[in-house]
Amino acid sequence: MTGLIGTRSGLFRVDTVPFEGSERIIDCGRVSQICDSDEVSGTLVAAEEGLYRLTDTGQTWEAMGVPETNVWAVFVASSGQIYAGTDPARLFRSSDGGDTWIELEGLRHQTTTDIWRSAFTDTAHVRTVTGHPDTPDRLFAGIEVGGLYRSEDGGDRWSKCEIRDEAGVVQDDIHEIRCLTPDEYIVACGRLSLHDPNHAAAEGGLYHTTDAGTTWQRLDRDIGPSYYRSLFLHDDELLTCGSTTVPPEWSGMLDADATMFASTDTGNTFNPVPYPGGPDEMILAYTSDESHVYAGTGVGDNGRILRRTSDQTWETVGHVPDDVLSLTVY
Predict the structure, then answer these.
(1) What is the pLDDT of residues 126-160, one digit of tens each?
(2) What is the secondary structure of 61-82 as a DSSP string?
(3) DSSP characters for 213-229?
(4) Is there a domain that residue 307 lies in?
(5) Helix and strand tally (H, E) in the chain?
(6) Are 85 and 128 in contact (CB under 8 A)?
(7) What is the pLDDT, as a whole number, of residue 169?
């Protein structure tokens, strides 16, 4: 078994699980996403210093030449088109396997782009892009911090999805969106707002749509945390991890006050799940193979890799020297 682990300080590889040590194979800064798809060759890695294609489980790699270097998100549609979201918040598309790229300027020309920005920089980024194989022209792009946008024509034109909390505040801090069916999606939100002078007025939370983003229902009202980073769908199960606080309060420190939750009814009910490192360590990434589900935590200078066992408990199988932001296994 080979594992690829994306961290804040590059891409690491391990050749066995459990493991004692890891090898950094690309020194590329933050690795926010690792993507495998039957539609394109190799493994695609979205990183601070570019979009990379890996072959031979990371033995060889090449930069793919996205015009903006700082790539946060990558998605491959069933049509074979590759989408890359960047910082500053721009979206690029390749229709030839990554040889050439064009910018989808319709996203950048939204009326609110002049106030898109994160809490820590003057720019925002496209953090997540997804769609369903049966509707390849329907895309969703989540901006941190700028909101959730939908396209019905492969990314040329976009409209904003109004995700509102109980107070009516639009959720602009989009961290991840997962697709269940062509019309059904779940979004994980943070608590930043574009329209508050202190940038922190939103409720955050988990939101669910069954009509392709026209209306949304909040899922996490009664479970405590309201800041969410990661979502993972495995068979009929939804996994997520929420915190009662937000970075920078716990970023790089052991005080996330985090809880992992599992749901088998599309988020109508959630059950808390204990895991090694919790509640201090926040789970920021999930993946699976045919036998197990894996997760990675972010704790500043020591990321933990977890594996779910046959009795549905979690065990530590190794550590890497930085926050785990993304991972995949072969």
Answers:
(1) 999 999 999 999 999 999 999 999 999 999 999 99
(2) EEE---SSS-EEEEEE-TTS-E
(3) TSS-EES-TTSS--EEE
(4) no
(5) 1, 28
(6) yes
(7) 83
What is the C-alpha separation between 25 and 3, in angstroms, rounded? 12
Of the pLDDT bands very low, low, confident and very high (cuts 50, 70, 90), residue 198 is low
Is 1 within the bounds of a domain? no
| The dihedral sign for the CA sequence 307, 311, 312, 313 | negative
State how far the Cα of 213 lies from the Cα of 135, in Å rounded to an integer: 14
Q: CA-CA distance, 79 to 59, in Å (whole number)?
A: 28
Per the listing, tokens 């210093």 go with 49
* H helix or E strand, kind and range, residue 181: none
Find the CATH number of the domain harbouring 162: 2.130.10.10
Location of structure tokens 């020194």: 27
- In the chain, the number of structural domains is 1
Average pLDDT, the chain: 93
Residue 153 domain-assigned (yes or no): yes
Tokens 């690792």 belong to residue? 34
CA distance 211 to 1: 39
As a whole number of angstroms, the distance between CA 268 and CA 247 comes to: 27
Residue 204 pLDDT more than 70? yes
The C-alpha atoms of residue 103 and residue 98 are separated, in whole angstroms, by 13
Residue 278 belongs to what H/E stretch?
none
pLDDT over threshold 90, residue 301: no
CB atoms within 10 A of CB 248: 10
In 146-292, beta strands by DSSP E: 147-151, 159-161, 174-179, 185-189, 205-209, 217-218, 227-234, 237-243, 258-263, 271-273, 282-288
Instruction: Domain of residue 69: give its range.
Output: 65-218
Structural domain includes residue 4: no
